[in-house]
């Protein structure tokens, strides 16, 4: 193959990249990509479930105080915030996806407090589009991504700006579904896919060894974890519009 | 187990952590750890080989201009720098480990230009100790680390501040040798070890799929790559003293 052909191929093959933590987002050209935000335990899982169940919009905020400020706006927002695994006093619910049932969220706007996820969203807002991924909407998300013919950047929200295994494993699940499309993969995408191959037979078991899983177990939210690892429970794809996450029209 | 025992155990089990890129070093308390700097292709491999072969010291610098400045000091430094895979004109050699033979480096001080590795070293200098790792000195390094009873942080120099597979795979090889010691592993350490398990039967083959391997291949340094993946060719452990890397006295 001569150089011209080589260059041509490089220009036309879209990239499928994985950003392992929000701290690394500045290394990517988000404006050239569709960004998928991933925060498996539990923000993006709750967002997918809430949008699937008819929430009009979900507004992610970083701090409990920002969330509380929506109370003043008096427009009937549902407020979600927790500290140390407990719903903060005066709020409607915490971060458990079980709260996002049709009975509670249908037609409502939910303000969700999520430090890691909001940080990732904020740093990705210049992307061509920002959508939300979780195991719940895995295949629906991948089917939509397949049709876009754009560079894709999977952003793991991680834990306190560092790598975590559950978000990376989900990124690997997306790479696994899209890798037949001849995307150019970066090293994190290759690693994420390899880790997914190791864990996919029993993701729950695989993630038990993580430090984060241990931490969440101490918070008594094993049921939430099991819920977050269900594959293809939903089909809605939440998309960022201005400050709000709403259902993507396909 | 009651809380007191739980806390006690937490305090006494040292941590074995992997920092996947220099951009994430600020997330760690390097001052509480022995840091191992990893830059497999090719800086830390060349450093291990050079120190093994009798170099009195190796001084890592980030820029070719810094390296050239040592010429003015007139003390018989060997200067190593390359750009685009070629030795920079006027320098003694490039970054190929093959240059670091006993004939060339014995008794000499080498000034080595390495952007990624120098960045990682600079950010780690407050550590209890900073040592250099590569596949060449893997077992010697691990045997020494075993005796230290300290927290260990394996710092991958990565590629332009981002994750690369070869440095992570080596970190996984270290975790593999030390994991019987009941270290507390963080998620990156767990992931690195899992990737090493996938790749260990044929590391060369495993790394062929990486983007970085492709880039290095284009530079025509396949022989260097093969050299860098030799396990336990050397036993010297380079350690940082002031600005210089010298042989650790054991």
TrEMBL record, chains A, B:
Transmembrane segments: none annotated. It catalyses: (2R)-O-phospho-3-sulfolactate + H2O = (2R)-3-sulfolactate + phosphate. GO terms for molecular function: 2-phosphosulfolactate phosphatase activity; magnesium ion binding; sulfopyruvate decarboxylase activity. Keywords: Hydrolase, Magnesium. Gene3D superfamilies: ComB-like. Belongs to the ComB family. This is Probable 2-phosphosulfolactate phosphatase. It comes from Mucilaginibacter aquatilis.
């Amino acid at each position: 193959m001569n150089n011209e052909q080589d260059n041509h191929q490089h220009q036309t093959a879209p990239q499928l990249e994985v950003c392992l933590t929000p701290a690394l987002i500045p290394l990517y050209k988000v404006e050239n990509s569709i960004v998928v935000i991933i925060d498996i335990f539990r923000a993006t899982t709750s967002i997918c479930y809430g949008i699937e169940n008819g929430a009009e919009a979900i507004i992610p905020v970083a701090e409990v105080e920002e969330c509380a400020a929506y109370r003043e706006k008096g427009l009937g927002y549902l407020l979600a915030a927790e500290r140390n695994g407990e719903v903060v006093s005066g709020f409607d619910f915490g971060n458990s996806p079980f709260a996002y049932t049709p009975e509670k969220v249908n037609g409502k706007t939910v303000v969700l407090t999520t430090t890691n996820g909001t940080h990732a969203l904020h740093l990705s807002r210049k992307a061509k589009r920002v959508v939300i991924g979780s195991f719940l909407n895995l295949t629906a998300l991948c089917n939509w991504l397949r049709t876009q013919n754009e560079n894709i950047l999977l952003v793991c929200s991680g834990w306190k700006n560092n790598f975590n295994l559950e978000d990376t494993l989900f990124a690997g699940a997306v790479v696994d579904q899209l890798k037949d499309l001849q995307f150019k993969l970066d090293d994190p995408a290759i690693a994420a896919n390899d880790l997914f191959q190791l864990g996919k037979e029993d993701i729950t078991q695989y993630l038990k060894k993580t430090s984060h899983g241990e931490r969440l177990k101490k918070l008594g939210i094993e049921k939430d974890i099991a819920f977050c690892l269900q594959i293809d429970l939903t089909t809605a794809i939440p998309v960022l519009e201005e400050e709000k996450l709403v259902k993507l029209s396909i």
